[in-house]
Amino acid sequence: MGQLDNKIALVTGASTGIGLAVARRFAAEGATVYLTGRREAELAAAVEQVGGRGVGVRSDVSRLDDLDRLYAEIAERSGRLDIVVANAGVGDFGPLGEITEEEYDRTTDINLKGTVFTVQKALPLLPAGASVIVLSSSAALRGAPGLGVYAATKAAIRSLARTWAAELADRGIRVNALTPGPVATPGADELRAALPQDDGATPAARPAPPTPLGRVGRPEEVAATALYLAGDQSTFTTGAELLVDGGVTQI
Ligand SMILES: NC(=O)c1ccc[n+]([C@@H]2O[C@H](COP(=O)([O-])OP(=O)(O)OC[C@H]3O[C@@H](n4cnc5c(N)ncnc54)[C@H](OP(=O)(O)O)[C@@H]3O)[C@@H](O)[C@H]2O)c1
């Protein structure tokens, strides 16, 4: 018996990284999982990895017509949605003074607008007992040079979890923020590569370990926490933020 038997779940941005790990874990626990992403081939490969309980719907969270199409398909095939993981997100490196309008629009459109409308348009399908999980970031809790716009969208997402938890409590729907620290994924590896590098020439200049635990996280470790928030082990938890960050924001 799985922890999510008979549940219907949506994970946006599930073709790689954290979203894929969440989709795989949810399916392994018995859920039917809808996966989204913009790139066809990557999405098809992800659905293949998830197995028979995975359904791919190619869509862009920043496009409202794509979201309408996604939810129409879920409504037709499954009739309801028990779990929403608004995971799709991007980060651009842009210190103050170098932020371009294009990067600003891309980051806010996908991370903030995408999260708002992913959750809003899911509402008609959510039954009592549904769990909504939104992805914040440890970058929202620390001053990380070059990540201002990204961090601001993630701080907004954490705030939305509180507001939506209040607004949806009387429907019996829980909303929580899941906040990873540095986790090894294609997106994060690309972003970290864009950050200014210490040359490590002297011992004093060697880069510090990425977290107090001495390593970056694995997507599967974030997926385990998503499973906790999605399922029946967390039925008294709403409006909360769960950190999966190797202690980086606390120690
Ligand atoms: N990894 C970390 O260190 C870390 C830390 C804190 C927070 N997070 C957050 O965790 C989430 C997942 O990050 P990740 O590191 O796993 O990223 P990733 O490896 O880059 O994966 C992002 C996924 O989202 C999809 N995506 C991007 N834009 C999309 C859009 N407009 N519509 C639909 N899908 C979209 C991508 O596929 P397509 O490009 O094909 O659409 C991909 O499947 C993000 O919200 C990120 O901000 C990550």
Can you tag this structure with a few keywords?
binds NADP nicotinamide-adenine-dinucleotide phosphate, alpha/beta, Rossmann fold, globular, 40% helix, seven-stranded parallel sheet, 7 helices, 251 residues
Please, could you describe this protein's structure?
The chain has helices at residues 17-28, 40-50, 64-77, 101-122, 148-168, 186-194, 219-230; strands spanning 8-11, 32-37, 54-58, 83-86, 131-135, 174-180, 241-244. By secondary structure, the chain is α/β, with parallel strands linked by helices. Strands 3-2-1-4-5-6-7 form a seven-stranded parallel sheet, with helices on both faces. Helix 2 (40-50) links the parallel strand 2 and strand 3. The radius of gyration is 18 Å and the shape is globular. The N and C termini lie far apart (38 Å). The structure holds NADP nicotinamide-adenine-dinucleotide phosphate (NAP).
The CATH class assignment is Alpha Beta
The dominant shape is globular
Can you give the helix content as a percent range?
40-55%
N-to-C CA distance:
38 Å
Strand count, sense and closure of the main sheet?
A: 7 strands, parallel
Order of helices and strands: EHEHEHEHEHEHHE
Number of domains: 1
And the CATH topology?
Rossmann fold
Average the pLDDT over all residues and give the rounded result.
95
The CATH homologous superfamily name equals NAD(P)-binding Rossmann-like Domain
- Distinct ligands, ions and cofactors found in the model: NADP nicotinamide-adenine-dinucleotide phosphate
Number of strands: 7
Q: Rg, please?
A: 18 Å
Compute the number of helices. Answer: 7
How much strand content do the residues show?
Answer: 5-15%
List low-pLDDT spans. none
Strand order of the largest sheet: 3-2-1-4-5-6-7
At CATH level 2, the architecture is 3-Layer(aba) Sandwich
Structural class from helices and strands?
alpha/beta
